[in-house]
């Protein structure tokens, strides 16, 4: 049996040096014992340690070194032996650390997890107390970590409190920060830290007030804030009293009779929201129409939409362009044709020499119809009945604007504008004259964006651009540029 | 009115803020005070500095600027008609308390909300001013969560996002109609618009790779909201549908569910009873399934009865019991998506299984090493030395996995 005497409880370098030599020499884990502290035998036990200089060096992964550095901070006595056993087994199974169902690997990971948790809890539960003012100002905490995580965790406090002079005192060592560097010192006693702080009473007041007595769940509290930490948490002294009073406080609230309303109430109350349902409102103007859309409940699409998207444009625009419905972006911003489809439209308008601001832009359906998949909203085509119900508003828009020409982009818009279904490919590009003005059907920009066949996308886009150029010419808005010679 | 001392104010305004369940201090971009003049750091993971006996964490100094309010929301302790004692902090009092608490390592930062006084704009301005002083005058680099007053001017919401790590506006009730009854001055449409503005603004602040000058950060910790459970009659399925819609629409980090709790001086139009904690717990589990396990709201609803989640068993198990034909799943060959649907297997366990099986064919014992309770998992999986046989389809499977214990809603203490 080899006994290796380490310099301290967290002597990682000593362990690594000894482990390296022992493994090179071929000493099996069962024959090695790592000890710390006094009186456990000689530095390297009875047998001298092998000389590592003439041995072939070997490599271990960074993952193992990182794991070992954490495991060594654990308080369990067998941690050094466990690590040597892992090191030994890595010779034969280099991928061992990935096999997390292995008992040794599990044990090491579990220890590392406990250490990491202890470090996290130290970040949470250290409580500084202030001494001195001005240049003498210092912040001192007394803390007892669950594992030996002082040095591992101190840099966190240096980053967070870079401009404070602070010390964390523990029974196994101390950490000090002076604004420039971190130093570590010998163990301290609780009496070395200040025993009070003026702000602690405020903290306790806050802690007691933020507690909801109707939700008493002490086990949940203790699993996250174990009792071992309570001695150094000023707020913990309130816990017993808070628990004792909780049931009584809740009963009092539950059994209380409803009180008279506050008499100041009537003087300070805000106005109630206007929730008038305006589904059948006959608008007297475009403005009234847009206002009424907020209260439209003609179909259920309003429920999951952010807002209705009203038409925009001059009151007497010669050209009205109607799309299908707002998309994700339009729903959020409240403006029509803002997303990718809007960009295609803008491109075509520009090519046709049409000023977007001179056109009245609107949609057949005013609310965004969608389904949620993987936390994204995906467009869904509105149903015939949704289009029909929303036509109420589009018909009024047409009546108010009285455009020379209405361009219906896509099947939904065409159905709404014409009152019946048409095949877009068959009817596009033709000027259809009707009692309420002329209509031109074309593709919806989304069709151009989404068609799976790139050749079809190019073809459809060319036709779409040509259709808008025609619309520009017919409505008198365009320059006629880009107009095909037909 | 007599001037209240600061501790009394703190007591009133912390009590008034505690019904907001949000506590997260995570998601901010990494920063620390080593190149600054003040204090503070955020390193991605939030820290809970204390826990109160209700099991909730104390991460932020969660307070209201004031609990005076001109809104009369029936479920709220601060509604205008309540006789609760009122108080109001000065802007500097909040700033000083935040810094004093932060320097002592009590908190990760500030969660500031407020009752609405004078006007929505005035209230929001005051809240933004607290955040501005912390950031600009004191170079505070800890966490700031600001509650949005949705009715406030979009310019103020814009400013709030520049100073805060997280923004939130509470929807509170899943049905707009219920808000009309219980919160006459609140408008769900306005809240949704504000959340829409925040999402658009967050997306605009995401730097493109080619951007040389990065746009100013805007609420890098995202936005969240809260739904109250049990104040109106909305069933669980409706709550989940609303959540799915909110996650999809506004890119929310979290939807918090808050079991409606009795409050002092409570309104006559609401039932006052102990909060439905188990129901709240099941909703959080269902929410988790939507966010991390690839479940949709309608799928989870398949395991519910009459629109309500089963209180006795978790929603994944309830779903699986209805979908037995999809089981058992072979842990050595099943893909990640399928394994995530196995009752008793969490995200971590599934990832471990996938990693280990590259080197080893898993036996039941191996799976046992990788999960918490193999007994819950056993009926649903196949391993090298294990097949559940008829167990998956056993009529009494539910009783075997979850021995019948009626979790009395009122006695969960």
TrEMBL record, chain A:
SUPFAM superfamilies tied to this protein: Uracil-DNA glycosylase-like
Family matches, as InterPro entries: DNA_repair_put, DUF4130, UDG_Type-4/5, Ura-DNA_glyco_family4, Uracil-DNA_glycosylase-like, Uracil-DNA_glycosylase-like_sf
Alphabetical list of CDD domains matching this protein: UDG-F4_TTUDGA_SPO1dp_like
Key words, A-Z: 4Fe-4S, DNA damage, DNA repair, Hydrolase, Iron, Iron-sulfur, Metal-binding
Domain annotation Uracil-DNA glycosylase-like: ranges: 310-469
Gene3D superfamilies: Uracil-DNA glycosylase-like domain
Family: Belongs to the uracil-DNA glycosylase (UDG) superfamily. Type 4 (UDGa) family.
Protein name: Type-4 uracil-DNA glycosylase
Organism: Brevundimonas terrae
TrEMBL record, chain B:
Reported cofactor(s): [4Fe-4S] cluster
SUPFAM superfamilies per UniProt: Radical SAM enzymes, RuvA domain 2-like
UniProt keyword terms in alphabetical order: Iron, Iron-sulfur, Metal-binding, S-adenosyl-L-methionine
InterPro entries per the UniProt record, alphabetical: Aldolase_TIM (IPR013785), DNA_rSAM_put (IPR023874), Endo/Exo/Phosphatase_dom_1 (IPR051675), rSAM (IPR007197), rSAM_sf (IPR058240), RuvA_2-like (IPR010994)
Protein name: DNA modification/repair radical SAM protein
Organism: Brevundimonas terrae
């Amino acid at each position: 049996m080899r006994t290796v005497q380490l310099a301290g409880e967290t002597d990682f370098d000593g362990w690594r040096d000894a482990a390296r030599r022992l493994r090179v020499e071929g000493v099996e884990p069962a024959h090695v014992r790592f000890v710390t502290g006094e009186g456990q035998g000689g530095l390297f036990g009875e047998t001298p340690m092998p000389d590592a200089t003439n041995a072939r060096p070997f490599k271990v992964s960074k993952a193992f070194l990182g794991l070992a550095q954490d495991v060594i901070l654990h308080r369990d006595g067998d941690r050094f032996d466990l690590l040597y056993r892992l090191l030994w087994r890595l010779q034969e199974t280099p991928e061992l650390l990935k096999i997390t169902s292995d008992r040794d690997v599990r044990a090491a990971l579990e220890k590392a997890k406990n250490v990491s948790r202890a470090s996290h809890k130290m970040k949470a539960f250290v409580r500084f107390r202030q001494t001195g003012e001005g240049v003498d100002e210092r912040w001192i905490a007394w803390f007892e970590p669950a594992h030996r995580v002082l040095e591992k965790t101190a840099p966190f406090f240096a980053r967070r409190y870079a401009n404070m002079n602070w010390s964390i005192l523990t029974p196994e060592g101390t950490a000090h920060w002076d604004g420039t560097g971190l130093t570590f010192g010998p163990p301290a006693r609780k009496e070395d830290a200040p025993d009070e702080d003026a702000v602690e009473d405020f903290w306790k007041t806050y802690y007691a007030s933020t507690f909801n007595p109707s939700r008493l769940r002490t086990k949940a509290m203790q699993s996250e804030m174990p009792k071992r930490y309570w001695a150094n948490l000023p707020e913990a002294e309130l816990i017993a009293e808070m628990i004792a009073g909780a049931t009584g406080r809740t009963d009092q609230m539950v059994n209380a009779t409803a009180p008279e309303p506050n008499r100041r109430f009537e003087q300070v109350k805000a106005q109630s929201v206007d929730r008038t349902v305006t589904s059948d409102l006959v608008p007297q103007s475009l403005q009234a129409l847009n206002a009424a859309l907020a209260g439209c409940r003609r179909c259920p699409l309003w429920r999951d939409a952010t807002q209705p998207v009203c038409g925009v444009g001059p009151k007497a625009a010669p050209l009205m362009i109607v799309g299908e419905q707002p998309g994700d972006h339009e729903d959020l911003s409240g403006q029509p044709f803002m997303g990718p489809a809007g960009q295609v439209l803008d491109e075509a308008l520009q090519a046709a020499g049409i000023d977007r601001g001179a056109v009245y832009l609107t949609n057949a359906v005013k609310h965004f119809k969608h389904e949620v998949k993987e936390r994204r909203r995906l467009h869904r085509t509105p149903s015939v009945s949704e289009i029909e119900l929303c036509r109420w508003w589009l018909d009024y828009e047409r009546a108010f604007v009285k455009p020379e020409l209405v361009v219906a982009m896509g099947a939904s818009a065409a159905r709404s504008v014409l009152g019946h279904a048409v095949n877009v490919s068959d009817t596009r590009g033709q000027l259809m004259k009707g009692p309420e003005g002329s209509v031109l059907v074309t593709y919806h920009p989304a069709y151009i964006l989404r068609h799976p066949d790139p050749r079809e996308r190019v073809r459809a886009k060319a036709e779409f651009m040509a259709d808008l150029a025609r619309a520009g010419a017919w409505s008198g808005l365009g320059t006629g540029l880009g107009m095909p010679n037909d | 009115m007599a001037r209240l001392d600061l501790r009394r104010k703190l007591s009133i305004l912390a009590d008034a803020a505690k019904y907001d369940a949000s506590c997260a201090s995570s998601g901010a971009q990494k920063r620390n005070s080593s190149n600054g003049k003040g204090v503070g750091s955020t390193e991605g993971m939030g820290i809970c500095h204390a826990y109160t006996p209700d099991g909730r964490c104390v991460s932020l100094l969660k307070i209201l600027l004031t609990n005076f309010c001109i809104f009369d929301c029936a479920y709220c302790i601060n509604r205008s008609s309540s006789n609760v004692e009122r108080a109001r902090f000065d802007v500097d009092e909040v700033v000083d308390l935040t810094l004093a608490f932060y320097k002592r390592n009590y908190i990760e930062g500030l969660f500031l909300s407020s009752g609405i006084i004078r006007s929505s704009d005035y209230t929001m301005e005051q809240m933004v001013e607290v955040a501005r002083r912390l950031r600009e005058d004191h170079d505070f680099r800890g966490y700031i969560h600001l509650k949005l007053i949705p009715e406030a001017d979009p310019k103020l919401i814009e400013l709030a996002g520049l100073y805060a790590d997280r923004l939130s506006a509470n929807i509170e009730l899943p049905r707009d109609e219920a808000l009309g009854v219980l919160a006459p001055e609140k408008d769900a449409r306005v809240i949704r618009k504000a959340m829409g503005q925040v999402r658009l603004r967050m997306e605009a602040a995401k730097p493109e790779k080619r951007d040389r000058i990065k746009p100013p950060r805007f609420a890098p910790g995202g936005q969240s909201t809260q739904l109250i459970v049990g104040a109106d009659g909305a069933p669980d399925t409706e709550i989940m549908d609303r959540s799915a819609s909110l996650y999809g629409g506004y890119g929310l980090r979290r939807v918090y569910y808050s079991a409606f709790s009795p409050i002092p001086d409570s309104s006559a139009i609401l039932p006052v009873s102990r909060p439905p904690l188990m129901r709240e717990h099941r909703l959080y589990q269902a929410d988790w399934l939507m966010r991390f396990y690839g479940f949709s709201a309608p799928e989870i609803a398949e395991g519910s009865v009459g629109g309500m989640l089963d209180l006795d068993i978790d929603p994944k198990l309830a779903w699986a019991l209805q979908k037995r034909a999809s089981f058992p799943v072979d842990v050595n060959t099943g893909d990640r998506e399928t394994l995530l649907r196995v009752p008793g297997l969490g995200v971590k366990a599934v990832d471990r299984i996938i990693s280990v099986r590259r080197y080893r064919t898993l036996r039941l014992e191996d799976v046992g090493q990788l999960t918490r309770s193999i007994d819950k998992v056993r009926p649903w999986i196949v391993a090298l030395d294990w097949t559940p046989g008829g167990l998956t389809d056993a009529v009494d499977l539910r009783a075997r996995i979850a021995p019948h214990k009626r979790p009395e809603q009122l006695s969960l203490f």
